[in-house]
Amino acid sequence: MLRKILPGVPTNYIQEFFTGAHGDQSLNEGLAYYKIVKEQYQKYNGDIARAHNILDFGCGWGRIIRFFIKDIQSSKIWGCDPMEDMVQTCKELNKYCSFEYINPNQPTSFQDNSFDLIYSYSVFSHLSEDYHLQLLQEIKRILKPGGIYITTTRTRDFFKECEWMRGRPDLETLNPGIKAMANSFPDTEGSLKAYDEGSYCHHSSNIEIWPYWGDTAIPKKYVQDKWTGLFTYLDFLEVGWQNVIVVQKPF
């Protein structure tokens, strides 16, 4: 009975490709981030039930957006993604929320000042420096004055995780979405040094159609120095597998 009511999930392969896990493990990670987003929003902007619209920017197959359905009318919940097949998957699996394809090389179709809350998970964990600054401008445009943007980035430990992945004897048997990190940040010590100095750390995946894509770790110092021209810095949470950045569009 619940399967007919609750949003569904895609195949294990798709789940692993996008999140590195499937089933309860993947959903529990999504649930943990949902709790952080809700807590941080309510810390600065009050009851999330009073938000007019919220947006999952880079929603993937929709594992996080589903948790907000119990907090706010589903007509106010939006998801968008630059992969058309994932947007279609979301539409098929989640009949409650609205989903829209976005062209990564163009502004979104959302109106100025549309959302009280925009959040992303593992989006700014992958972008080149130039492209991430471009995307921040777009997020600021569609966020309401006083609205909150919450996103994630790779932790400092990610460089060591890449090094560990390269040494795994079962590397070639893993899902491509998981084993890709073995190619990232081959100079572990150099990457750690750059991160500690506050530099933007990005390793390109060399994907022709997505030249801005790879693995990215953005240190707290960089956020405080470079994002404050666009947003009011609120917090940088070092929790879990990814660090969480919390900023606000000025009133």
Secondary-structure element series: HHHEEHEEHEHHHEEHEE
**Biggest sheet: strands side by side, in what order?**
3-2-1-4-5-9-8
**Largest sheet at a glance?**
7 strands, mixed
Quote the CATH topology of the largest domain. Rossmann fold
Q: Strand tally, please?
A: 9
CATH architecture of the largest domain: 3-Layer(aba) Sandwich
The overall pLDDT, averaged over residues, is 95
> Percent range for helical residues?
25-40%
Which assembly state applies to the chains in this document? single chain
Number of helices: 9
CA gyration radius, whole angstroms: 18 Å
The top-level CATH class of the largest domain is Alpha Beta
What is the structural class?
Answer: alpha/beta
Our measurement of the CA-to-CA distance between the termini, rounded to an integer number of angstroms, reads 46 Å
User: Spans of 5+ residues with little confidence (pLDDT < 50)?
Assistant: none
The CATH superfamily of the largest domain is known as: Vaccinia Virus protein VP39
Which band does the percent of strand residues land in?
15-25%
Shape: globular
Task: Return the domain count.
Answer: 2
What secondary-structure arrangement, pairings included, does this model have?
Elements: H1 2-5, H2 12-19, H3 23-45, E1 54-57, E2 77-81, H4 84-93, E3 98-101, E4 115-119, H5 129-142, E5 143-154, H6 158-166, H7 176-179, H8 188-196, E6 201-204, E7 214-217, H9 220-227, E8 232-237, E9 242-248
Describe this structure in words.
This protein has 251 residues and is of the alpha/beta class. The chain has two domains: 2-155 and 218-248, Rossmann fold; 158-204, no CATH class. The protein is built from nine helices and nine strands. Helix 6 packs antiparallel against helix 8. The longest helix is centred in the first third of the chain and has 23 residues, at 23-45.
